[in-house]
Amino acid sequence: MTAPPVLTVRRVVTTRAGGFSAPPYDSFNLGDHVGDDPEAVRRNRARLAASLGLPADHLIWMDQIHGRTVATVDGPRTEAVPGTDALVTTRPGLALVVLTADCVPILLSDDQAGVIAAVHAGRVGARIGIVGRVLDAMIAAGARPERIGALLGPAASGRQYEVPAEMRADVEAHLPGSATTTVRGTPGLDLRAGIRRQLTEAGVGAIAEDPRCTIEDATLFSHRRGAPTGRLGSVIWMEPAA
User: Cβ neighbours of residue 1 under 8 Å, at least 6 residues apart?
Assistant: First the structure.
């Protein structure tokens, strides 16, 4: 029996620095839907692809809609995958990109099975079950929950993400563990805490978290801190191990 190829999973999270966009999108904005100069966005995306050592059409983008649709991709694309908030692939060399500016980017992988996913989990998507949907799609592609590793990227923290009390109660009912109180003593949401609990209960084997808060950290884009603004990219891809 031939052994499966050994793959290395790579993950990258961008910041605001190093791009071509003018204020208020300065400077490494990767979002093409926020009002930025399209040519600046194109140059920023080309720079990201070059820095990863991948052709531009091997970066797979989503037309994110705050839903729970999951798309499986198996080849390069020149256009964003329409109407989806999660991507899954088993193909090495395809880099899955999720764009955020306060929502939670989730990068998932079963390195042994060679299955990866990128997820846009905002308040609405997390509440309606995008995480469970993407885990189902990964398992259908050959992943096993206990082998899946997750990275929860920079997002609005529970210290700063203020919402009405009714909204906090509603999200908590659907995403237990997310209700919190902000530093101002007001109702808040910690979506990463709720998602971490959801992943743990689903049997996901390892969960890491980037602790940065997009609202607090000026090196990151934050819609809540200053709209209009740009979007960060969280990227995951597989390559053969050296």
Answer: none
Rg (CA), the chain: 17
Dump pLDDT digits (tens) for 110-122. 999 999 999 999 9
Please state the pTM of the whole predicted model: 0.95
| Distance, CA of 113 to CA of 35 (rounded, Å) | 39
Q: Is residue 1 over pLDDT 70? A: no
Q: Which of 234, 238, 231, 240 is nearest to 16 (CA)?
A: 231
Q: For residue 90, what are the contacts with CB-CB under 8 A and spacing of at least 6? A: 74, 113, 114, 115, 116, 141, 142
Asked whether the beta carbons of 155 and 100 are under 8 A apart, the reply is: yes
Rounded to whole angstroms, what are the CA distances from 64 to 83, 92, 114?
Answer: 6, 23, 24
Residue 211's Cβ-side half-sphere holds a number of Cα atoms within 13 Å equal to 0
Q: Cα–Cα distances in Å, from 224 out to 102, 112, 153, 156?
A: 7, 38, 17, 9
Nearest to 191 by CA among 67, 63, 105, 79: 105
Strands (E), 43-194: 59-60, 70-72, 86-89, 95-100, 104-110, 115-121, 149-152, 179-181, 187-189
Question: What are the pLDDT digits (tens) for 31-61?
Answer: 999 999 999 999 999 999 999 999 999 999 9
How many residues appear in the chain?
Answer: 242
How wide is the angle at C-alpha 169 spanned by C-alphas 103 and 199, nearest 5°?
Answer: 50
Contact 96, 235 (CB under 8 A): yes
